[in-house]
Amino acid sequence: MTLSPEEMEARIVRYGDLKPCRSAFIDAHTPGSNQKENFTIVGGGVSESSDQHVHISDTPGFNIGAAGQPPKCLNSLHTHSTAEVFFVLSGRWRFFWGRYGDAGQVVLEEGDIINIPTGIFRGFENIGTDYGMIMAVLGGDDAGGGVVWAPQVIENAKEHGLVLGENGKLYDTKAGQSLPEGVQPMPLLTESELARYPELPASEVVPHYVARYWDLMALASNSPAKVIGENALLRDKPGFEVELLTRGSVPAQPASCDQHEVLMVMRGHWKLNWEGGSRVLAPGDTCAIPPQLAYAIEPAMSGEASLYRVRSTDDPAGPTWRG
């Protein structure tokens, strides 16, 4: 298989070209959450707004997105039926979970990665001093069919003009919008339904679902560090595998894979070579590699260099928590 430089460039989403959406989810008007930006990079994601820009619409068995937030900005409590993995590209972030967000929490620094268990309510907050960005991998081509919000999130959003329809679409009453005829508001979860969502302490989540960047860098000194997968540091089968690669762990010779791969640069500049051309990837860039394309990647500059590689598998897209 070969690709022209133009065809490959169409499969690269540059960090500087990311187009944000500030109305992607139901908490877009809620104070404390109304400054967040959402990015849909590969696949349609789970945005509830028609204003969300999708950079690459084809899905490789999973979705890639990102969230950018200024300090003290919150992403409200929600849950998914498939995997949701984040790594911190920039900033310092607090991830918290539980019905009211008080069951447990963990702070992640740049490069750290978390594979949040399915079936629990989760949220996150930028606790750094500057605008921060986290990159996300969502399991499945349809990313689990959307987001399930904690009841208080839906109620708070209504007070600030946003109503979520049972069709999964947002309607802004402050902008004169209303639910279409025949569409009812998204029903709140009942107490019996809420009781099925576990309240996991940090002692059950952090050891099995969080990996620290500098630990992974040490593991990846000579070969790729297997981060998420059947035989990885974080043992799981969410429909994709994740590895961390460094300058010491990338093979010199081109190789191909039968599965879709996505390269997500963490640190440094990387030169991507394939039959037909080469391109340089910078921190925050995302590149979708098609199956059967032989390629090699190497650091283009001295200094720290790392990237996450996500590879599709034939496993179901979740769940990651089977309590």
CATH fold-level label of the largest domain: Jelly Rolls
Main pleated sheet: 7 strands, mixed
CATH superfamily of the largest domain: Jelly Rolls
- From the spread of the alpha carbons, the general shape counts as globular
Count of individual beta strands: 24
CATH class of the largest domain: Mainly Beta
Strands ordered across the widest β-sheet: 1-22-19-24-18-16-17
Global Rg: 20 Å
Number of helices: 5
Kindly name the structural category.
Answer: mainly beta
Organism: Halomonas huangheensis
InterPro entries: Cupin_2, RmlC-like_jellyroll, RmlC_Cupin_sf
Protein name: Cupin
Pfam families: Cupin_2
What report would you give on this structure?
This protein is mostly beta strands. The chain has 5 helices and 24 strands. The chain folds into 2 domains: 195 residues, Jelly Rolls (Sandwich), CATH 2.60.120.10; 100 residues, Jelly Rolls (Sandwich). The mean pLDDT is 93. The longest helix has 9 residues. This is Cupin. Pfam families: Cupin_2. InterPro entries: Cupin_2, RmlC-like_jellyroll, RmlC_Cupin_sf.
Summarize the structure.
The protein has 323 residues and is mainly beta. The chain contains 5 helices and 24 strands. It has helices at 5-9, 151-159, 191-194, 202-209, 213-219; strands at residues 12-13, 37-42, 54-56, 62-69, 74-79, 84-90, 93-97, 104-108, 113-116, 122-126, 132-139, 148-149, 162-164, 170-172, 210-211, 225-229, 234-235, 240-246, 261-267, 270-274, 277-281, 286-289, 295-299, 306-312.
